[in-house]
Amino acid sequence: MPLGTLDRTPPPFFRQGPSALTKLIFFSALALFLMVADARFRLAEPVRAALAIALLPAQRALQVPVQMVQGGVGYLQGLSGALQAERRAHEQLVLQSEKLARAELLAQENQRLRSLLDLKPALAVRSQAAEVLYEAADPYSRKVFIDRGQAQGILAGSPVINEAGVLGQVTRVYALTAEVTLLTDKDAAIPVLNTRTQQRGAAFGGAATLGGMELRFASANADVKVGDPLQTSGLDGVYPPGLPVAQVLAVERRVESGFARIALSPAAAVDGIRHVLVLEPLGVQLPPPPEPLVALPPKAGRLGTAPR
245: domain CATH number? Predict the structure, then answer.
């Protein structure tokens, strides 16, 4: 067979087509185009959503062993934590039992001493629980609204507390709600007693300090230290005595001024409160003040005699 008649084209298996460099340039340009088109026009969003739906059963099936392992580890950790919490609860119960026994002895001793001194029994403070609905819309005040009002017997001026201490005071009462002004409000004020020194003072809110409260009208040489606890004095006829109010945060003694600047930290956190306790003001149970005596005119004596 003459050589000119032979077919010199390679078989299909050995055909290479475009070169490797050409393929690289083409697919790189295609990938770049697809990325730009997806970023601009979200072309691959339906495809991605369809793939996510199709692969969801497989993903859930592959997550089962992982969830089982995590659940087993969590169960063991929770069991260990529950045992430790139970142990701490038993220890705390023993301590509370001891404190309760001592408190009962002190209460009996206090009752005997009050009977011996013929003192009147302490006033019983009535209270009722309430829930915070929302905060006031005024950004320059610290006030909240509770779900108790005139229908539930809430009175204006009632103290509001929680498990940590005093939160504020009821300032406005509506039919089914009431407005509570917190201690950190600029218009709030409360008389306090320093339990370390037994000195009385007045704490005010709205201070530009870290705690948001300050103890005003304290002399520059007053015996006040950082960490001193402040409680209600009970002399204002509103707050019962002995409720935690604040703690001394910082003391700044000014030489040029006769008063010290004392920053306070509230005992009860005013942020994130949910449930509170509304107390009845002490003034409701106190007896009314005596009426002032009216000076009577002197009686006229007999004719010709001076009155005795």
Answer: 2.40.10.340
Q: How many helices (H) and strands (E) does the chain have?
A: 2, 12
216-254 pLDDT per residue, tens: 888 888 889 999 999 998 888 888 888 999 999 999 887
Q: What's at 131, amino acid-wise?
A: E
Tell whether 147 and 226 lie within a shared domain. yes
B/e letters for 34-54, b = 16+ CB within 10 Å, e = fewer, are eeeeeeeeeeeeeeeeeeeee
- Which residue reads 């507390």 in tokens? 161
Identify the sign of the CA torsion 144, 145, 148, 154: positive
Q: What percent of the chain has pLDDT over 70?
A: 84
Q: Is residue 226 part of a domain?
A: yes
Instruction: Give the pLDDT confidence of 200-219 residue by residue, as tens digits.
Output: 999 999 877 677 899 988 88
- What residues pair up with 144 in beta bridges, in sequence order? 135, 180
What pTM does this model have? 0.57
Q: Which of 151, 224, 216 is nearest to 189 (CA)?
A: 216
Angle at the Cα of 111 from the Cα atoms of 106 and 115, rounded to 5 degrees: 145
Task: Decide if pLDDT at 305 tops 50.
Answer: no
Given the structure tokens 């004596």, which residue do they identify? 301
**Residues in contact with 140: Cβ distance below 8 Å, sequence separation at least 6, in sequence order:** 186
Pair 112, 200 in one domain: no
Kindly state the tokens that stand for 4: 């000119």
Answer whether 127's CB lies under 8 Å from 162's CB.
no
**Predicted local distance difference test score (pLDDT) of residue 303:** 42
127: number of Cβ within 10 Å: 16
Residue 180 tokens read as 């509570």
A 10 A CB-CB count for 239 gives 26
